[in-house]
From TrEMBL:
Organism: Niallia endozanthoxylica
A single MF term (Gene Ontology): prephenate dehydratase activity
Protein name: Prephenate dehydratase
SUPFAM superfamilies xrefs: ACT-like, Periplasmic binding protein-like II
InterPro entries per UniProt: ACT-like_dom_sf, ACT_dom, Chor_mutase/pphenate_deHydtase, Preph_deHydtase
Catalytic activity: prephenate + H(+) = 3-phenylpyruvate + CO2 + H2O
Domain ACT: 200-277
Domain of life: Bacteria
Annotated EC: 4.2.1.51
Keyword entries, A-Z: Amino-acid biosynthesis, Aromatic amino acid biosynthesis, Lyase, Phenylalanine biosynthesis
Domain Prephenate dehydratase: 2-182
Pfam families assigned to the protein according to its UniProt record, in alphabetical order: ACT (PF01842), PDT (PF00800)
Pathway connected to this protein: Amino-acid biosynthesis; L-phenylalanine biosynthesis; phenylpyruvate from prephenate: step 1/1
Length: 283
């Protein structure tokens, strides 16, 4: 088995791969779409991509690719703590408050808004393809007064010095990473195993008032617990949405199929995006 992740080395996605698939060779990709398409093209067996951050919400490019571009089921999920640090080239360590530009992934920049506003107000923050890519860029330009927001592994990987630790706005900062694969594979029952989830996509009919209430009722009276519901545009016109629904149970033979049949009777479209084990790292 070969895995792929959003690279380069030492991204948070790389950390997730190292945690869940330490025995498999891995390939770094420049973008999330590149990583997902590598599974479709059979360059790799498993793509590990970020799906949601506790502070910034869903990673829209991941959701959009799953819904509109490819047909790959979710095979597993890992929720991992995220620690964002400000890092610079060692030559710039004593002058980090005089930086002219900060690089990182846009989600990481948004997670550190308060710190950047208070400590580096006026310093331009620019989006990069990944946190580790930003760290690599800073390492390659030692003479420039620039910094990166990334994790501690990135600082070690690219020889950077950490100027400030844990600069994210809120202490609880976790990201959900999902595993996509054409073929099912076994995931271990590790100490950080939590349970099973089932994720559905539900598209409502345009001419059926109260459809969302009826959809939710189909789950409620069966005592199926919804742990997340999120709307996303169908990209067919303003006001047209589909819903991503997470249930905290595995796909069974009775309850979830019964709910799907009831929802489809309302002229809704339902697609199962995956039924999979999920894990949560404590630290």
């Amino acid at each position: 088995m070969k895995t792929g992740y959003l690279g380069p080395k030492a991204t948070f996605t790389d950390l997730a791969v190292r945690e869940m698939f330490p025995e498999y060779p891995s390939v770094a990709y420049t973008t999330i779409p590149d990583c997902i398409e590598a599974v479709v093209n059979e360059e790799i067996d498993i793509a590990v991509v970020p799906l949601e951050n506790a502070l910034e919400g869903s990673v829209n490019i991941t959701l959009d690719y799953l819904i509109h571009e490819v047909d790959l089921p979710i095979r597993g999920e890992l929720s991992a703590p995220i620690r964002q640090h400000l890092m610079v080239h060692p030559d710039q360590l004593n002058n980090w408050k005089e930086l002219k530009k900060i690089y990182s992934h846009t989600h990481a920049i948004a997670q550190c808004h308060k710190f950047l506003h208070q400590e580096l107000n006026g310093v331009r923050a620019e989006g990069f393809t990944s946190t580790a890519g930003a760290a690599q860029y800073v390492a390659e330009h030692p003479d420039q007064p620039i910094g990166a927001i990334a994790n501690e592994l990135a600082a070690k990987e690219y020889g950077l010095a950490i100027a400030k630790y844990d600069i994210h706005d809120f202490a609880y900062n976790h990201t959900r990473f999902i595993f996509l694969s054409k073929q099912p594979f076994n995931l271990p029952i590790k100490p950080d195993y939590v349970g099973y989830k089932t994720t559905l996509m539900v598209t409502l009919p345009a001419d059926h008032s109260g459809a969302l209430h009826q959809v939710l009722s189909a789950f409620a009276w069966r005592k199926l617990n919804l742990i997340k519901i999120e709307s996303r545009p169908t990209k067919t016109g303003l006001g047209n949405y589909f819903f991503i629904v997470d249930l905290d149970t595995a796909l069974d033979d009775v309850l979830i199929p019964g709910a799907i049949a009831e929802i489809e009777a309302l002229n809704c479209h339902v697609k199962v995006l995956g039924s999979y084990p999920y894990y949560q790292l404590k630290k």
